[in-house]
Amino acid sequence: MAGRRGARTGRGWDAAPSARTGGSGTGRRGRGRSDGSAASSGRWPAGAARPGDESDESTPTPAPPRDEAEQAREICLRQLAVRPRTRAELATALTRRGISEEVAAQVLDRYDEVGIIDDAAFARAWVSSRHQGRGLARRALANELRQRGVDADVATEALGELDESTEAETARSLVDRKLRTATGSPEAVFRRLVGMLARKGYPPGVAIRAVKDALAERDAEAAEFADQIDADALAEAGSDPERDAL
């Protein structure tokens, strides 16, 4: 019996590891994981990338180069979203952003065709807005239109809608508004107000007459001073209201 027990013991759970595992020394639970890593078992978790593998998702596809005409259109639309622009203003903006002259001309020609750019409409709106809002006269308005690249003939046509009588009425309105808070002698007030009109582009004759008429209605002292003013003579003599205001 002892012999049979010993043989059984040799084959049982207390046998040497080599007798149960073939000499591996690791046991059934450690099979294939000698270093505790997934690589030692030859298997990888689902969805995990192996070393050296390149995933398509991790390598973004480079965007195709943008079309120059598309860039030009976007620049123009951003400019026009702020306020109306002349063709010359848009051309300057495109040049600054590195758009070629050929592409710029193609885009701007197309905008001309569909009415997105209309220098004549721009000039009319500019004259109306700046005259009513700022009281600018034709000379100042002509200078502003020229700075924005409006053609001389187009500007002249737009300025023709501002006649002399309207210009004179606006000049008088500006003087009346300033005269309410003006201080100093009639002569000093006269020079300041004529200078103000000159800076807004009014010719000497219009400016002098507007201020003289307003002073004549202010008080006795101002009226007496205004009586001594010969508006026509001062205008013909080439009076410089801007200089007189200093």
Automatic annotation (TrEMBL):
Its main location: cytoplasm. Residues 118-159 form the RecX second three-helical domain. Residues 1-71 are annotated as: Disordered. It comes from the Bacteria. Keywords: Cytoplasm. Coiled coil: none annotated. It is found in: Cytoplasm. Signal peptide: none annotated. Residues 9-21 have a biased composition (Low complexity). Residues 167-210 form the RecX third three-helical domain. Residues 72-110 form the RecX first three-helical domain. InterPro entries: RecX_HTH_1st, RecX_HTH_2nd, RecX_HTH_3rd, Regulatory_RecX, WH-like_DNA-bd_sf. Modulates RecA activity. PANTHER family: REGULATORY PROTEIN RECX FAMILY PROTEIN. Belongs to the RecX family. This is Regulatory protein RecX.
